[in-house]
Amino acid sequence: MKFFNRGLYALILTIFFQSQLIAEYLYKDEVVDREEFTQQVEVLGSELYQKTGISLRLLMLKSIPDNLDIVSYERELIKSFNEPTILLIFVRDSSEIDIQVSDPSLYEYFDRKQVLSPVASPVQAFVMALTYGDSWKHFNELRTDYGGSILPLIAGKSKPEQTVGKYAGSMFNGYIDIAHQVSLSKNVVLENDPGDTNQQTLFYVKLFFYGFVFYGIVMYIRRRLYIRRQNREQK
User: Fold this and answer.
1) 20: number of CA atoms within 13 Å, CB side?
2) Which residues, including other chains, have CB under 8 Å from residue 167's CB and lie 6 or more apart?
3) Hey, CA dihedral for 121, 126, 132, 135, is it positive or negative?
4) Which residue has the higher pLDDT, 65 or 215?
5) Most CB within 10 Å of its CB: which of 34, 169, 209, 235?
6) What order of strands is seen across the sheet that includes strand 26-29?
7) Which residues contact 191 (CB under 8 A, 6 or more apart)?
8) Element (H, E) at 21
């Protein structure tokens, strides 16, 4: 009986520490709850920490507890981490996304503004600047504010059954972006970082898209010129 108690105690400890390990970098997930998503975050987060000493943690919450605002919650939570920590958080019910760090010096390794930008491409940023820029300074600020890896994806429309997948894809894309920037700043290579592949894929997608748009504009202009010439000849 004594042996059984020891064995049961050891089993409980094993399960507990395994659970802690699984939840180390996907620190809390109340939204996605998919094993594949958890594994992807853990693999990349673990490698990043081993090679840089920086812990990148992701929180997926339904709501902020105890009626706190997101910044207050982050600041209290990040005090519990001993190692240098970057905290990426998503709150589903309030549609809030933020990044907090345990030390301001960590911002040297990644561009917080770029990661959280609501604009994905420089073309879109330029259009936004032309539309909303009310001064030269404001125009330049809007023109250079692009490259968002979370908000442009998470703001996209989706069917109800696709919403959880959209949350997972958007937040993991942001997680990858931060990890990729930190690794570059630290001059290390992450074997599990799909960042370069993603950037190349996005580049070719954008190239095709903008090429198609440019082609459409050219054809429209040619069509208008042809109609104008025809009208002149008929007169």
Assistant:
1) 6
2) 31, 32, 60, 90, 92, 154
3) positive
4) 65
5) 169
6) 26-29, 55-61, 85-91, 96-101
7) 47
8) helix 2-22
Domain ranges of the chain: 25-114+154-193, 197-235
**Helix and strand counts by DSSP (H, E) for the chain:** 9, 4
| pLDDT 10s digits, 115-164 | 999 988 888 888 888 888 888 888 888 888 888 999 988 888 888 888 99
At the top level of CATH, the class of 25-114+154-193 is alpha beta
Query: CB–CB of 92/62 below 8 Å?
Result: yes
Residues in the chain: 235
- Nearest one of 102, 58, 59 to 80, comparing CA atoms: 102
Residues 174-218: tens digit of each pLDDT = 999 999 999 999 999 998 876 554 555 444 444 444 454 455 566
Count of beta carbons in the 10 Å neighbourhood of residue 54: 23
pLDDT at 8 over 50: no
